[in-house]
């Protein structure tokens, strides 16, 4: 029976063409070159298509990411056959699979959101419908519709991979493709729609004058808790969920949830654990901004406004995702020689340090080459656009092109796959808590809390030393 | 179980525990009210900017453009809000190559020899080469400050955009004569945006020696334009932060990035005797509440009270809206302004929301192409005394 790409990413063997860090460095150079060329063509305000309007480019960028997740994680590359995935030249695969992802993207945006939903359901998904309304200019019709579709994307970018990573495709994991993919797509899309109405629709309802009281809850229920009526409050924790899903999947190797033996307990713990960690990050990154720049003031603009700060939480989280994925895709998820928690902790520290460095470098230099403006607080500039654009290219390179040219794909034999599976099971057994694990957990938790307060103490002076304007 | 195994288990548990402790503390403490104990008490600097008797503002023009749909169509066609303003091919820097393909260098080369005195000829060339020259208006206001001894001093805040429109407005309000007579002692530029700055040759036509104050952060094109526009006086770059002009009048420069590739904005504070603080702004891209909070933090003012506002508040300049603007509408009440003379980039929607919220908005007369009485229009005045 045709397997398409089921298990393809786990089973493929990527072999370095050169030793040491050269393949990673070559890939980095290649990625940055392609990033800059495509940025100029598609996004740059000085470039060819100038999609960074900002919301048009932002929306396409986000949905493209999800298209690739759908193709690879949900549909396992269906309808592409396994043999083609294993034998076609990476460049051919890259071009074909990217073209398909863009085609689906266009069908989704133009056909589903703008065409179907926008014409027959909710006017705010369709620029032409919005333009018919008094006072809405063509530019803002496009921007508002893009914003609505973008907000939907934020949710889908969390739930689509979460069903695969956390829920392990259950209860449909035994179905063949494309039935499995279609089922999970429909379920995650339904959940995304539900979350959209609960978290974003009220934002869209008060985006227009007068407030759309008859179709949305206005002011929204989160107003007093979040100190803003803006839906950015939800964007914040949802973006953190997106990032945490990928941290769990890559540099944490699903630890500690993977240790739970009971299938449904493990799945539930992973799904809700991701949300819990994301919410913790969401609150902490907001607090970190308060420590760095002072308390937010409701009603003000830019970096002092609660809505800006909530959005910036999501932006900071994405800065964390970039090095984590790089470590996983190009550095063999280094280190691998310690226990799972130690490996995960070291990778997390490396990613965190790299994220901070990337954040500083971005804000200090990006205006010199991205066609953007210097400064932190521009209300129309979103660092999530270039960072997600880079992530998208990494996904194309890693998922579609097998890290070509610095790596080459080799197919594992059935014996090798089975051997690796057995080793993985044995490793999991070895990782399970035993002996003084519980004592260590307690001591570690106390250290973790202490560490948190140390960070809280040093953050204001650290932020002051960096002084990003 | 051996010691090594126990040690390893302990280490695995401890490493996991650190993560659990960190995440737990992050989740439970970071947004709790207890976190506020970490915020430092910000001491008010209470800088003395002096005091004045009264301030009067004449709205020379608040209509920066006449058709919002036309302007937004241009912005959409050129690639959005982040495109460099000199690239749109708007007047006066049109080069005939079409929307989004302009440049300062090409544009100024066609009119430089006519600036600042032969503006009608220049405008004819501009009309042929630029995108939607008929849509250009501009923002400018004359501020009359009465000092405590009764002496009145005048300043021009911004010089608009269209040479043709601004010249008409200057003549309508007698600004041409005030400039010629040197009654207006300085031109204060709030920021480099086209609708506030590109009309400087109209000011220089009547007084090329006038001292010009610009905020820190101008791009090279903007700096060159002062020279190319025929200015012969002093240009003073006001550094970020507080700058005192005359007793009772100061500005604050905010180092902020702004749409259409502009950086930095200067806004004005007036300390009016017996009344309180008055803010006069061009666009207030930093946000009116940020401006008020900066005053609280930085300066001393009468009765420790906010009295009035004049100018653009950059809330819905394009008749757009966003829920975060509602945050502003809700929160402005906390600052207790007694007289709100808003217009321009505040947006009509916002002015109406202010009125609906019961704020003391001074309504206008909607003359000279201003569109709505909801705010102060062209030719209207407001006094803070």
Order of helices and strands of chain B: HEEHHHEEHHEHHEHEEEEEHEEHEHE
Radius of gyration of CA atoms of chain A, rounded to a whole number = 22 Å
CATH architecture of chain B: 4-Layer Sandwich
Enumerate the spans of chain A where pLDDT stays under 50 for 5 or more consecutive residues.
none
Described by the principal axes of the CA atoms, the overall outline of chain B is globular
In CATH terms, the superfamily of chain B is: Ribonuclease Z/Hydroxyacylglutathione hydrolase-like
Q: Compute the number of structural domains of chain A.
A: 1
Number of helices of chain A: 17
Strand residue percentage of chain A: under 5%
The secondary structure category of chain B is alpha/beta
Helix content of chain A: 55-70%
Number of domains of chain B: 1
> Looking across the biggest beta sheet of chain B, what order are the strands in?
7-6-5-4-3-2-15
Largest sheet of chain B: 7 strands, mixed
Name the strands of the widest sheet of chain A in spatial order: 1-2
Count of beta strands of chain A = 2
- Mean pLDDT across the residues of chain B is 96
Query: How many E-type strands of chain B?
Result: 15
Q: Short description, anyone?
A:
Chain A is mainly α and 469 residues long. Chain A has helices at residues 8-11, 22-43, 55-74, 82-87, 90-120, 127-131, 138-165, 179-199, 201-205, 223-226, 232-249, 263-293, 306-330, 340-365, 384-400, 414-431, 437-466, and strands at 13-16, 407-410.
């Amino acid at each position: 029976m045709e397997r398409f790409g089921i298990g393809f990413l786990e089973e493929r063997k990527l072999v370095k063409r050169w030793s040491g860090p050269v393949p990673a460095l070559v890939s980095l150079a290649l990625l940055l070159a392609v990033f800059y060329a495509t940025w100029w063509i598609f996004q740059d305000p000085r470039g060819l298509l100038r999609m960074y309007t900002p919301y048009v480019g932002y929306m396409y960028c986000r949905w493209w990411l999800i298209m690739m997740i759908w193709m690879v994680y949900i549909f396992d590359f269906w309808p592409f056959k396994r043999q083609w995935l294993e034998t076609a030249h990476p460049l051919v695969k890259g071009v074909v699979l990217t073209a398909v992802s863009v085609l689906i993207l266009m069908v989704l945006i133009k056909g589903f959101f703008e065409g179907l939903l926008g014409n027959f359901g909710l006017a705010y998904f369709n620029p032409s419908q919005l333009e018919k309304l008094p006072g809405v200019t063509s530019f803002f019709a496009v921007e508002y519709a893009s914003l609505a579709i973008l907000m939907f994307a934020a949710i889908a970018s969390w739930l689509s991979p979460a069903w695969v990573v956390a829920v392990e495709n259950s209860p449909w994991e035994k179905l063949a493709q494309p039935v499995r993919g279609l089922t999970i797509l429909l379920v995650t899309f339904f959940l995304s729609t539900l979350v959209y109405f609960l978290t974003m629709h009220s934002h869209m309802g008060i985006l227009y004058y007068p407030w759309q009281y008859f179709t949305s809850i206005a002011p929204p229920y989160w107003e007093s808790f979040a100190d803003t009526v803006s839906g950015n409050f939800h964007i914040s924790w949802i973006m953190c969920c997106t990032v945490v899903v990928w941290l769990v999947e890559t540099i944490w190797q699903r630890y500690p949830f993977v240790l739970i033996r009971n299938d449904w307990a493990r799945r539930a713990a992973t799904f809700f654990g991701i949300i819990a960690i994301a919410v913790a990050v969401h609150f902490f990154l907001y607090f970190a901004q308060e420590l760095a720049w002072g308390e937010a003031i409701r009603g003000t603009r830019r970096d002092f406004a609660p809505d800006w700060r909530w959005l910036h939480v999501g932006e900071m989280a994405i800065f964390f995702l970039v090095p984590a994925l790089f470590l996983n895709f190009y550095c063999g998820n280094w280190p691998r020689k310690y226990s799972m928690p130690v490996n995960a902790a070291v990778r997390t520290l490396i990613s965190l340090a790299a994220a901070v460095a990337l954040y500083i470098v971005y804000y200090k230099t990006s205006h010199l080459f991205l066609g953007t403006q210097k400064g932190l607080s521009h209300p129309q500039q979103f660092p999530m656009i270039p960072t997600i654009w880079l992530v998208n290219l990494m996904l194309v390179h890693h998922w579609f092109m097998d890290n070509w040219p610095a790596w080459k794909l080799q197919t594992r034999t059935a014996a090798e796959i089975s051997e690796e599976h057995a080793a993985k099971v044995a490793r999991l057994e070895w990782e399970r808590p035993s002996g003084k694990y519980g004592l260590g957990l307690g001591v570690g938790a106390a250290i973790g809390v202490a560490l948190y307060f140390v960070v809280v103490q040093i953050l204001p002076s650290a932020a002051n030393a960096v002084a990003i304007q | 179980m051996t010691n090594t195994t126990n040690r390893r288990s302990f280490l695995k548990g401890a490493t996991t525990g650190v993560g659990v402790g960190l995440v737990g503390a992050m989740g439970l403490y970071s947004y709790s009210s207890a976190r506020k104990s970490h915020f430092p008490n910000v001491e008010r600097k209470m800088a003395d900017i002096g005091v004045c008797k009264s301030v009067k503002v004449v709205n020379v023009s608040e209509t920066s453009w006449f058709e919002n749909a036309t302007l937004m169509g241009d912005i959409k066609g050129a690639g959005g809000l982040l495109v460099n303003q000199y690239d749109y091919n708007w007047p006066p820097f049109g080069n005939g190559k079409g929307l989004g393909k302009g440049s300062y260098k090409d544009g100024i080369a066609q009119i430089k020899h006519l600036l600042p005195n032969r503006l009608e000829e220049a405008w004819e060339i501009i009309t042929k080469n630029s995108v939607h020259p008929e849509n250009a208006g501009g923002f400018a206001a004359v501020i009359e400050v009465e000092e405590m001894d009764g002496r009145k001093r005048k300043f021009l805040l911004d010089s608009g955009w269209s040479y043709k429109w601004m010249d008409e407005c200057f003549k309508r309000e007698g600004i041409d004569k005030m400039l010629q007579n040197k009654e207006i002692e300085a031109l204060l530029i709030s920021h480099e945006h086209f609708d506030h700055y590109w009309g400087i040759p109209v000011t220089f036509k009547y007084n090329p020696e006038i001292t010009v104050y610009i905020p820190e952060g101008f791009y090279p094109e903007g700096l060159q334009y002062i020279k190319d526009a025929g200015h012969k006086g002093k240009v003073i770059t006001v550094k970020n932060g507080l700058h005192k002009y005359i007793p009772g009048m100061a500005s604050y420069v905010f180092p902020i990035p702004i749409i259409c590739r502009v950086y930095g904005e200067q806004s004005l504070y007036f300390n009016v005797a017996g009344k309180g603080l008055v803010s006069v702004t061009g666009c207030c891209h930093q946000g009116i509440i940020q401006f008020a909070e900066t005053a609280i933090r930085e300066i001393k003012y009468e009765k420790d009270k906010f009295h009035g506002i004049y100018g653009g508040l950059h809330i819905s300049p394009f008749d757009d809206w966003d829920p975060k603007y509602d945050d502003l509408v809700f929160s402005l009440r906390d600052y207790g302004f007694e007289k709100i003379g808003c217009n321009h980039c505040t947006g009509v929607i916002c002015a109406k929301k202010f009125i609906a919220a019961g704020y003391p908005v001074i309504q206008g007369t909607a003359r000279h192409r201003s569109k709505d009485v909801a705010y102060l229009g062209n030719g209207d005045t407001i006094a803070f005394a």
